[in-house]
Amino acid sequence: MNLFKDTFMFFARRNFFDWMPDKLYLKLCYKCKLGKNLNLKNPQSFNEKLQWLKLYDRRPEYIAMVDKYAVKDYVASIIGAEYIIPTLGVWDKFEDIDFDSLPNQFVLKCTHDSGGLVICKDKTEFNIKEAQKKLNRHLKKNYFYSCREWPYKNVKPRIIAEEYLEEKTNQSDNTITESSECLTDYKFFCFNGVPEIFYISKDHSDNPTTDFFDMDFNSLPIKMRDPNSEILPEKPINFEKMKEFAKILSEGIAHLRVDFYSVDNHIYVGELTFYHCSGFAPITPSEWDYKMGEWIKLPID
Question: Are the C-beta atoms of residues 293 and 276 closer than 8 Å to each other?
Fold first, then answer.
């Protein structure tokens, strides 16, 4: 199994299987990454149902919702433009970027994938060549083929520049603290407009942590990719407002993860995610994989 897994994933990462039908590809990935057979006829777990949704829940509006540029208009039309991160520019090619027009600090990201991100904290030290190399590499890839997340297939590859955000205050008592290079994420798992659980993610490269809570901010014994914190984070001061926005943005959708940042106690929508970890992250304890799966109501139920 390990030899098959290693071989399959080696070639998958190099796009050797772009020709493969989505259903077969997902079954092979599921077996390799989770060590289980994928049941698409009667999916029960959260991860299984995410694979089903990739294949059979393909509403056209999902394309705009995962496009990091188009989603801004989508969110603004529902909850207001003040809750989106301001855009500084959008370009089809890296060579079109007018760096003189950008402020000293900014963020560049690709509109069509995950991972095509470059942060500039000081233009005098910004390595334009390295940024160009990274972003051009991402522009050439169709993110859909790696895990068959359907909405990404037809997103136009572009580069956007956004305002650089950083946390300068403690969310509970407004005392000034040191700025954080990585923003804290507040991610709500919603099911047909009902937020059920959320997690607080501190994605520092040296020690990333994730802590899960219910909607009454009771800690939950869930682990996915990253370990829990040694000291649980405090409840964000604008938790109820984020919860309400998550409910509004996810209404009518079988499952949607709505992500927020909170900077100086102001909420920004980070992104809308249909497939948490693409449905390939082990969930422990395993009963939570099935409990979360119960919250996704499919037409086949």
Answer: no
